[in-house]
Amino acid sequence: MLKLKEVLLVEGKYDAARLHNLVEGTVLTTDGFRVMKDRALQTMLKRLGRAQGLIILTDSDAAGFKIRHFVTGLVGAEYVLQAYVPAIPGKESRKETPGKEGLLGVEGVSDEIILQSLQDALKSRPSSAAVTDTVPQAITYTDLYEWGISGTANSAERRRILLRQLGLPPRLSKKELLQVLSTLYTRESLARQIAQFNKQ
């Protein structure tokens, strides 16, 4: 598996499912064009980009490039690495008909092409990147449980309120929540935030 320090951003859940089998790291989605309207998602991507760097891997069609340009402008080109899949005619096996432009998306190209596109993007990483090799202690599912934001009575409501206070989207899955929190916060700093939240 290819280990990534940067957050990898793809368009949809099928792309993300595919990438989870190829890379070790945080994989998030734009949920198609939702990223252009969702302020909390935009704020989160800006914070993640500045904290860890972002790799954008979208489809090679016009929609993919529109999303790529929007996110790059939003986050800042200096925090973004661009990974491209070639424009290959075809359709994904789960679809009945090809997309509007008749091209394979990220989910449809080979593992080798995806990995090569990511390795090519990593070669363009600036040597003075603000990303460090130090990895803070990861936040665990047990931490979420002990903090009362997962698996306990009223945890869904508490998690929603906490995410709003932290400026993060409320629709993060449990896995995405762990990855994002571990990227943006140390375990200790988040514990302090939650302690303040519990006093309110």
Any chance you could write out the topology, listing elements then pairs?
Elements: E1 2-3, E2 7-10, H1 13-20, E3 23-24, E4 27-29, H2 39-52, E5 54-58, H3 62-75, E6 80-84, H4 111-123, H5 141-146, H6 155-166, H7 174-184, H8 187-199
Parallel strand pairs: 1-3, 2-4, 2-5, 5-6
Structure description:
The chain has 200 residues and is of the alpha/beta class. The protein has 8 helices and 6 strands. The protein has 2 domains: 122 residues, Dna Topoisomerase Vi A Subunit, Chain: A, domain 2, CATH 3.40.1360.10; 59 residues, no CATH class. The strands form 2 sheets. Strands 4-2-5-6 form a 4-stranded parallel beta sheet, sandwiched between helices. Strands 1-3 form a two-stranded parallel ribbon. The longest helix is centred in the N-terminal third of the chain and has 14 residues. The protein is elongated, with a radius of gyration of 18 Å.
The portion of residues assigned to helices is 40-55%
- CATH architecture type of the largest domain: 3-Layer(aba) Sandwich
**Count of individual helical segments:** 8
Q: What sequence of helices (H) and strands (E) makes up the elements?
A: EEHEEHEHEHHHHH
**Largest β-sheet summary:** 4 strands, parallel
Low-confidence stretches: 128-134
Average pLDDT metric:
85
Please provide the count of β strands: 6
Structural class: alpha/beta
Notable characteristics:
8 helices, Dna Topoisomerase Vi A Subunit, Chain: A, domain 2, 46% helix, 2 domains, alpha/beta, 200 residues, single chain, four-stranded parallel sheet, 6 strands
